[in-house]
Amino acid sequence: MLTVLISRPLRLIDWPLSALQRRLGTTGVAWAFLLPNLVLFGLFAFLPLILNVVYALTGGDQIMLEDRRFVGADNFARLSSCENYLDPNSCEKDLFWRAVHNTLIFVTLQVGLMVGFSLLTAIILNRDIRARGFFRSVFFFPVLLSPVVVALVWKWILQRDGVLNAGLDALGFETFNWLLHANWAFGWSIFLSVWAHMGFYTLILLAGLQAIPQDVYEAARMDAASPWRMFRRITLPLLMPTMLVVLVLALIKGVQTFDEVYAFTGGGPGSATTLMIQYIYETGFGGMPRLFGLASAASILVAVVLVALTALQLWANRRNVNG
Amino acid sequence: MGKVLGFLTRTRGRGGRLHWTDWASYAYLGLGVALMFGPVVWLLLSSFKTEAELARFPPRLLPHAQEMMTLPGHDDPLPMFVVTDGPLAGEQVAQVRRIGLASQVVRPEAPDEIIKIDISQREPVEEIRFAWENYTGLFGEFDFMRYLWNSTFITLTATAIMLLVNAMAAFALSKYRFRGRGVVLALVIGVLMIPQTVVLVPLFLIVSKLGMYNSLWGVIIPGAATPTGVFLLRQYMLTIPDEILDAARMDKASEWKIFWRIVLPLSAPALAVLAILAIMWRWNDFLWPLIVLSENRNFTLQLALNTFQGQLSTDWSSLLAMTVVTLLPIACVFMFLQKYIATGIASTGGK
């Protein structure tokens, strides 16, 4: 069906393309097939990469490059001018440092909890249980939901007259306006993103667990090894390469968290849940003046972190394949 | 009963009874089902509640609404109450109108005979009723249909373009040996490292310069060539034997014909996986549309949801229904194509 849909209209352009092929030769045809992709990559991936540097080195609130003046490393200097890096209030761009702090804490807790719960879930799913396929898909289900929907689902539960407060009320506790308190809003943001993404990592870890050969366990059982010892001495070491991949992937995604937290708290209360990408978005597009240079400088800093993590990922992948 | 329990607690492998660790596992998984499905089910149930029912605290599980009855001599359906006190105690009455603290009611048997009772003497008669009007109202709304159309158009067009462009590139990279192939492959890997999130400002400039700002095409085109797609398809096309292609070349088939008559149909499973992933990504896309689409009439469902939920007085009844409509296509995809998604995501490492 799908291929019929695609191939019917394509038949119409066969003749001019055959003529083209006679002129280009086989190598030329290969490049012709690559052309649309390369144009798109060039325009929307490589060109932006270079222009990003241009923006970071120029100032002003104009988007057109000819209207921007060269300021050198001024944007980076402004972002990094800080009396005490542990206290965002002492920095010139306090919101940037607030976002850096928030992102660091967010990523640490989120990745830690996510890998922990994914591992636990994967180990349980790897046991001899009934309806494994069903349970696996249950944990996977939220991965498919859009970030805005995830945010709304939990907002509806946590709102002042929501079902969580009703439960607390019924148990005799005081009701609480969860998203108006900085720490609770932050905690729930972490919870929500773990909820939304852990199924994905569970899937990868489960595949890793199932790849461990059974005879290793059988040999250990012959030697009367305890389950705990088998877990420590067989499962964990053999799962390590997969764990590494999962950890790096989770870090890469964690640093880029934006959608669900933005839709959930809007970065608030105050700037308690403002993360890096939200800072970039708001600096460049959120309000006036649009400080494109500052936004670009900040995104270059994020890009450096991501490239380092991706290099780590490629290395981990290679180890995983060879190991 | 004992037999059933015995059957349920028998483990598959060892034939023994459930160990305590098995109980713990099932308890954990049960909790997982509640935690993963519960919130979405709660949203679904809430979306069928009337505005009055939504404002109720504590909330009830199932949507309730007051029973209405049409009586002769009255044009509109009348709300039903049960009388708690006084001479009519225990009887069901229909309220004609309410004046201050007094309520004018009639008995269904005698719809003309108006009786006055105190409002503290009556309680509404409620039944479980699904407020479909939340949904029908939504589909009658011009703006909503517009968002739905925008989302659908972006998703389908972007997926089609992406499949074609990426399949062409994957074909060239898997079935031809030519100078510069290694460079192109390395560039594709390079693109993998640069997510859209870190080049927002220059991307915005390019899209504006191309006249695609505030246009649906500005959302569709920039993401059309994905390294993930090229990789997925190339891996698959490498498994197609070159002999088939050579045989076609003997028969004087053009390279283009080889591509669309042989390689594309043979790659159908990989194309299907990529199509599902692309539909998911595009339907759920948020940050880039948020930047490109500035006018309300160009919003996608995701943007509209985010805008409405941020408003001061949120109209939860239509917002919840809209959320359900937004998650419905994804939920359907999940139910029918779950296996493909799992393999697709596992083999590409997400996005």
What report would you give on this structure?
Chain A has 323 residues and is mainly alpha-helical. Chain A has a single domain (94-322), classed as Orthogonal Bundle (MetI-like fold), CATH 1.10.3720.10. Chain A contains 13 helices and 2 strands, in the order ααββααααααααααα. Chain A has helices at 2-12, 14-56, 74-80, 94-125, 132-144, 147-158, 163-170, 182-210, 214-222, 227-255, 259-265, 276-286, 292-322; strands spanning 58-59, 69-70. In chain A, strands 1-2 form a two-stranded antiparallel ribbon. The mean pLDDT of chain A is 86. Chain B has 351 residues and is α+β, with helices and mostly antiparallel strands. In chain B, the strands form 2 sheets. In chain B, strands 2, 3, 4, 5, 6 and 7 form a 6-stranded antiparallel sheet that branches. Chain B has a two-stranded antiparallel sheet with strand order 1-8. In chain B, strand 5 (102-107) and strand 6 (110-118) form a beta hairpin. In chain B, helix 5 (142-175) crosses helix 9 (227-237), helix 10 (242-250) packs antiparallel against helix 11 and helix 12 packs antiparallel against helix 15. The mean pLDDT of chain B is 84. The chains are: A mainly alpha (323), B alpha+beta (351). The interface between A and B is large, with 106 and 106 residues. Chain B: Residues 148-337 form the ABC transmembrane type-1 domain.
- CATH arch. level architecture of the largest domain in chain B: Orthogonal Bundle
Question: Based on CA inertia axes, which overall geometry of chain A fits?
Answer: globular
Shape of chain B: elongated
Which ranges of chain B are low-confidence, i.e. pLDDT below 50, for 5 or more consecutive residues?
A: none
Task: Give the name of the CATH superfamily of the largest domain in chain B.
Answer: MetI-like
The main pleated sheet of chain A reads as: 2 strands, antiparallel
Question: Radius of gyration of chain A, Cα only, in angstroms?
Answer: 25 Å
When the domains of chain A are counted, the total is 1
Provide the CATH superfamily of chain A: MetI-like
CATH topology of chain A, by name, is: MetI-like fold
| SS summary, helix count of chain A | 13
Helical content of chain B stands at: 55-70%
